[in-house]
């Protein structure tokens, strides 16, 4: 695809968003107003500026990174508009903010590229850990930065700006910092981790002290799980790390170690924490726990079942009956109103993004870039898998956002920056 | 708003989404190199790296003569410490592919046998240099 064709696809995605909003308005029996044009303009402005920044500062970047993300964003804007017009307005602001931050990132990287990123890897580890612990700040008090507990998980940060306050989920940025740190770290130690001098039965293992980072990241994700009670971020961090180490070494042993550690931590959490136990029961028997924890999942299943093949039509179903339909359960809302066809399109969109991401990683000659591209793709793919799988009851519900689709500013900013990094890497390692 | 028009519109909406995905998927498949030289694949002019530390999955087409080696001066660079600077040459003459070793230190192996003279390659043959294994496709 040429750069010009890419811009055409981005305008087409803006058209899809505007069309979706039109359908919402028509289905609601409202009169056609400026919201349609506004949605179109915001989509063009957001993806257009990132596109122009890539043209200017990363001209050799892959042209297929933005279009799938634009399609996912377009469908989500229409669906959020249908669920909550006020939030749709806010989401459009966040979209513009996310795009401008990505432009800033591309500008920042345009001279010396990802080599600058690599140098400060331990700084990311430190920043990431601090950001991760910030929501633990007292939720009342004189400080301008406060923590906030929502739905039993303490992962929000409130920044008081005097006139207004901004709510932010630092976890969405931490995942990027963690990938950058781990890529730098693993690029150095790839070979030591790939060697397996120890043998235990049929399995060969690396030197125990080489496993220190595995245990360390596992411990960090346990802290996230125990202290912040955030199952999603915890599994995502650890899973992405295992994915990266597997990419770096090509040793399936690490997948095994990761699965064992995840399962044991999960079992421990199930025995120790009420909210994990409730999540687990909602996963296994949502309909028996309909009055309680199972309500959300059960409603989502009713919705998706009603949606059938082509859906009820956007604006014509009742996805508003699902708690948190605009955030965690956006997939169920889309599956109800656009049906199996619409939800399959979303899966295809993510599959394309993941394919592009790993394609970029495969072409990289430099280890750091390869691992960064692979790590970012792991994070994106794993996050989409965890929440969609949670909605579909394939895995226990972890309560994280669906990238590019869920309502939420931090998620949008984090994932846009992720695209920016991928674009920059593909510019430095052109096909 | 008549229900029929609304139904038609929402089906058009779904169709548009799929058209978009189809376009992007086609661009990506070209981008990743699937479907390149579709005609040549049958005659086996495509080489795919199947085992390598860092290059597994890489493919390249052989048109005319192609020198493969560790040097960045060679046409196709392989990342393998056991490869020589210029390790072997592939020649595609009217669809028949020949490999000749360029006096490499560790040798070129076709289907596990070290070659001493230019050897004809057929589809499915395995070409090994050091730890890197390539397949003729």
Offer a quick outline of the entry.
With 431 residues, chain A is mostly helical. Helices cover 68% and strands 6% of the residues of chain A. In chain A, the strands form two sheets. A three-stranded antiparallel sheet of chain A has the order 1-2-3, with no helix packed on it. A two-stranded antiparallel ribbon of chain A has the order 4-5.
3D structure, described in words:
The complex is a heterodimer of chains A (431) and B (137). With 431 residues, chain A is mainly alpha-helical. Chain A has one domain. Chain A is built from 16 helices and 5 strands. In chain A, the strands form 2 sheets. A 3-stranded antiparallel beta sheet of chain A has the order 1-2-3, with no helix packed on it. In chain A, helix 12 runs parallel beside helix 13. The longest helix of chain A has 25 residues. Chain A is globular. The two termini of chain A are 13 Å apart. In chain A, 53% of the residues are buried. Chain B is of the alpha+beta class and 137 residues long. Chain B is 26% helix and 33% strand. In chain B, the strands form 2 sheets. Chain B has a 6-stranded antiparallel beta sheet with strand order 2-1-11-10-7-8, with no helix packed on it. Chain B has a 5-stranded mixed beta sheet with strand order 4-3-5-6-9, with no helix packed on it. In chain B, strand 1 and strand 2 form a beta hairpin. In chain B, 29% of the residues are buried. Chains A and B meet through helix 1, helix 3 and helix 14 of A and helix 1 of B.
């Amino acid at each position: 695809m040429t750069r010009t064709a890419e811009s055409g696809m981005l305008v087409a995605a803006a058209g899809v968003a505007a069309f979706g909003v039109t359908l919402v308005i028509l289905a609601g029996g409202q009169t056609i107003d400026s919201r349609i044009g506004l949605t179109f303009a915001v989509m063009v402005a957001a993806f257009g500026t990132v596109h122009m920044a890539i043209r200017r500062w990363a001209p050799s970047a892959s042209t297929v990174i933005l279009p799938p993300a634009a399609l996912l964003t377009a469908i989500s804007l229409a669906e959020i508009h249908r669920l909550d017009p006020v939030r749709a307005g806010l989401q459009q602001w966040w979209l513009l903010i996310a795009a401008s931050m990505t432009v800033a990132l591309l500008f920042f990287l345009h001279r010396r590229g990802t080599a600058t990123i690599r140098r400060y890897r331990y700084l990311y580890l430190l920043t990431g850990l601090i950001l991760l612990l910030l929501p633990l700040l007292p939720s009342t008090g004189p400080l301008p930065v406060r923590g906030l507990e929502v739905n039993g998980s303490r992962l929000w940060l409130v920044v008081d700006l005097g006139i207004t306050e901004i709510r932010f989920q630092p976890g969405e940025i931490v995942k990027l910092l963690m990938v950058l740190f781990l890529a730098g770290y693993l690029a150095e130690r790839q070979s030591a981790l790939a060697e397996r001098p120890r043998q235990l039965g049929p399995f060969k293992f690396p030197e125990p002290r080489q496993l220190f980072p595995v245990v360390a990241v596992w411990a960090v994700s346990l802290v996230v799980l125990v202290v912040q009670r955030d199952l999603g971020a915890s599994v995502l961090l650890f899973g992405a790390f295992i994915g990266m180490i597997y990419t770096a070494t090509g040793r399936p042993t690490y997948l095994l170690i990761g699965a064992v550690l995840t399962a044991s931590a999960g079992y421990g959490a199930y025995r120790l924490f009420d909210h994990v136990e409730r999540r687990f029961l909602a996963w296994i028997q949502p309909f028996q726990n309909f009055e309680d924890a199972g309500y959300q999942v059960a409603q989502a299943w009713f919705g998706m079942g009603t949606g059938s093949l082509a859906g009820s039509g956007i604006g014509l179903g009742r996805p508003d009956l699902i708690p948190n339909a605009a955030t965690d359960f956006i997939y169920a809302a889309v599956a109800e109103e656009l049906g199996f066809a619409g939800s399959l399109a979303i899966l295809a969109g993510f599959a394309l993004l993941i394919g592009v991401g790993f394609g970029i990683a495969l072409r990289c000659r430099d280890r750091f870039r390869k691992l960064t591209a692979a790590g970012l793709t792991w994070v994106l793919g794993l996050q989409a898998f965890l929440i969609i799988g949670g909605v579909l009851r394939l895995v226990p519900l972890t309560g994280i956002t669906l990238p590019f689709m869920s309502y939420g500013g931090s998620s949008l900013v984090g994932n846009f920056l992720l695209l920016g990094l991928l674009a920059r890497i593909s510019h430095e390692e052109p096909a | 708003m008549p229900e029929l028009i609304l139904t038609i519109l929402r089906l058009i909406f779904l169709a548009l989404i799929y058209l978009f995905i189809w376009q992007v998927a086609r661009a990506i498949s070209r981008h990743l190199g699937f479907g390149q030289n579709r005609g040549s694949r049958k005659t086996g002019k495509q080489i795919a790296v199947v085992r390598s530390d860092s290059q597994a999955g890489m493919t390249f087409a052989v048109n005319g003569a192609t020198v493969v080696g560790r040097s960045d001066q060679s046409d196709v660079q392989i990342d393998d410490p056991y490869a020589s600077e210029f390790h072997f040459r592939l020649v595609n003459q009217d669809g028949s592919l020949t490999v000749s070793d360029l006096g490499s230190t560790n040798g070129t192996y076709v289907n596990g046998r070290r070659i001493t003279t230019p050897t004809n390659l057929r589809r499915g043959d395995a070409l090994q240099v050091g730890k890197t294994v390539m397949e003729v496709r």
